[in-house]
Amino acid sequence: MTDTLIAPEWAQPGTDLSGSTVVVVGGAGGVGEGIVRALLVAGATVVATSRSAGRLEEFARRIDDPRLHVRELDLLDPSLSEEAAALATEFGGLHGVVISVADWGRQGRKPLLELTDPEWEDQLRQNQTTVFRAYRAFVPLLDADGMILQLNGLSADLPFPLAAAVAAGSAATKSLTRTLAAELDGRGPRVYELVLGFIRTRPRRLAGIDDPNWIPATDVGVHVAEVAAATSPIAGHTLHYFIDQTAGPRAAADQG
Ligand SMILES: NC(=O)c1ccc[n+]([C@@H]2O[C@H](COP(=O)([O-])OP(=O)(O)OC[C@H]3O[C@@H](n4cnc5c(N)ncnc54)[C@H](OP(=O)(O)O)[C@@H]3O)[C@@H](O)[C@H]2O)c1
């Protein structure tokens, strides 16, 4: 069974995703796990993906919920569109997709001017091409009243010394998401960009890195569930920031 989730004070009543299927790409990751747990509590059928079969097996065993399904998926796989279509067929349609994907690269922290071409190309593929391909594969499959949401970090807006390629990816995908929302212009699924502050995750906790002032990953999940169910008071806005645990999620109302 899913762990008991303590709803944050700002949580909305009536968030019910029973009968809806939501795919969480990167669902077995740190923030992804919190989102999966909150979506399950909200009644959704959840498909959590990872590139690693072993990771999915451990994840499914740990969460142990009959509405949780796990599938191997790599956003860079040439057959991504076919795999996404197969998921939609298997689950009788998809209401939502959450893109909880990040990759810091093998180069670690490194000054911008020292990045090699292969390191740059790898980061471009992992942090930008992934999101583009997720949109191209999944958006046409989503319910008209469904949604797709990309998670991002504050490096979308701020300099991030020693992580230039990650920051460039954050800024680029924020732009990509907002452009997609403008292109769809209300036709088809809702499109969201959720920029996060520091998040408390299980992998961080296991590594001894934690701070009670950070936002629990499950709180991010509660917001994602409310956006998917359209019970969030800011569901009409594309660009969301969740930086402060107590204040809860906020819309950047002047930016769409
Ligand atoms: N943690 C924070 O404090 C924080 C703060 C701000 C924003 N965020 C955002 O939250 C999201 C998740 O971050 P996290 O902290 O949870 O990181 P994480 O634990 O490393 O999870 C990232 C996930 O990305 C997946 N992934 C990487 N490349 C992929 C690909 N080619 N295809 C499919 N999946 C791929 C990985 O899946 P595998 O299982 O296949 O490896 C992994 O589960 C990111 O968008 C990040 O920017 C996090």
From TrEMBL:
Pfam families assigned: adh_short
Keywords recorded for this protein, A-Z: Oxidoreductase
Gene3D superfamilies documented for this protein: NAD(P)-binding Rossmann-like Domain (3.40.50.720)
SUPFAM superfamilies for the chain: NAD(P)-binding Rossmann-fold domains (SSF51735)
InterPro entries, per the entry: NAD(P)-bd_dom_sf, SDR_fam
Coiled-coil parts of chain: none
Family statement drawn from the similarity comment of this UniProt entry: Belongs to the short-chain dehydrogenases/reductases (SDR) family.
PANTHER family, alphabetized: 5-KETO-D-GLUCONATE 5-REDUCTASE, ALCOHOL DEHYDROGENASE, PUTATIVE (AFU_ORTHOLOGUE AFUA_3G03445)-RELATED
Designated name of the protein: SDR family NAD(P)-dependent oxidoreductase
Organism taxonomic ancestry: Bacteria, Bacillati, Actinomycetota, Actinomycetes, Micromonosporales
